[in-house]
TrEMBL record:
The protein, known as: Sugar ABC transporter ATP-binding protein
Organism from which the protein derives: Halolactibacillus alkaliphilus
Lineage: Bacteria, Bacillati, Bacillota, Bacilli, Bacillales
PROSITE patterns: ABC_TM1
The keyword Cell membrane belongs to this UniProt entry's keyword annotation: yes
Keywords: ATP-binding, Cell membrane, Membrane, Nucleotide-binding, Transmembrane, Transmembrane helix, Transport
Membrane topology: Multi-pass membrane protein
One of the protein's GO biological processes: transmembrane transport
Membrane-spanning segments: 12-32, 71-95, 107-131, 143-161, 181-205, 241-262
Domain of life: Bacteria
Cited CDD domains: TM_PBP2
Domain ABC transmembrane type-1, first and last residues per copy: 72-262
Chief place where the protein resides: membrane
Length: 277
């Protein structure tokens, strides 16, 4: 009787999970369908649910209207630079808050957490003024530098380091004559690679999809990121949704590849965070 109830419970649970997965994946499938069909298919009744043969032609139209590969390269530079900087600086700060003792530690950490409750839109004007004063408008560093550290990243690394690295290991490193920098690079980093993967994926995806701030500070088309370039496809006299969705589809591919590469570390980090040692 108990086995039957467990089987029914698991069947219902898996059905719900599969239903949720299909709902989540459908927008991506629909985006692919539109990107492979001509424009008139978007408003057809009944709508098309099978791929067409226009994927290459629609992408050629994208290339004819925007510098797709130039914008792609800009997005790669910005996303990679911010992600690497975030991993370095947030892990250093997280290690300091988790394992070091210094005056004002709790107050400073609370102040950092408080910034997470401030809407980012409130910082647009002062950030724009600073970037203008520095003469960084229409340069990629106007997007890279302000995003090199995040309050969430510091919080995430602090919590992970605090739980994953025993104090005895740090003390053993000190007894062997290791400096704090050597402890960080030789002891801490190898043990927090799953946390690196999780924060890296979240940061990379967030920066890759960022639209508002790059739109404000990057006016020159030569420094447009991919999201701004794709947005300009809407400015044509007649909106070609097949072309727009084709550009969006190819802009999504790098994110999918990044997630697939680091998926194992991402899941490992979540599992370790959910299970107390």
């Amino acid at each position: 009787m108990k086995n039957t109830k467990d089987l029914i419970y698991k069947t219902i649970l898996y059905a719900l999970l599969m239903g949720g997965a299909l709902i989540a994946l459908f927008p991506f499938y629909w985006m692919f369908i539109i990107s492979t069909n001509p424009n008139h298919v978007v408003n057809s009744v009944p709508p098309a649910f099978l791929p067409g043969n226009m994927l290459v032609d629609n992408f050629k139209n994208v290339l004819a209207n925007i510098d797709f590969f130039g914008a792609l390269w800009n997005s790669i530079i910005v996303s990679t630079s911010i992600t690497l900087a975030t991993l370095l600086f947030c892990s250093l700060a997280g290690y300091a808050f988790a394992k070091l003792e210094f005056k004002g530690k709790k107050i400073l950490f609370i102040a950092i957490l408080t910034t997470m409750m401030i809407p980012p839109q409130l910082g647009l004007i002062p950030s724009y003024v600073i970037i203008t004063k520095l003469g960084w408008l229409n340069e990629l560093k106007a997007v890279i530098v302000p995003g090199m550290v995040s309050a969430f990243g510091i919080f995430w690394m602090r919590q992970y380091i605090k739980e994953a690295i025993p104090n005895e290991l740090i003390e053993a490193g000190k007894m062997d004559g290791c400096s704090q920098i050597r402890i960080y690079f030789q002891i801490v980093i190898p043990l927090i690679l799953p946390a690196f993967a999780t924060l890296g994926i979240i940061t990379y995806m967030g920066v890759w999809n960022d639209f508002l701030w790059p739109l404000i500070v990057l006016k020159d088309q030569s420094v447009h990121t991919l999201q701004i370039a794709i947005r300009s496809l809407n400015d044509t006299y007649v909106r070609d949704y097949g072309m727009i969705m084709s550009g969006t589809f190819w802009a999504t591919v790098p994110l999918v590849l990044i997630f697939l590469i680091f998926n194992k570390f991402f899941i490992d980090s979540i599992v370790k965070g959910a299970v107390k040692n």
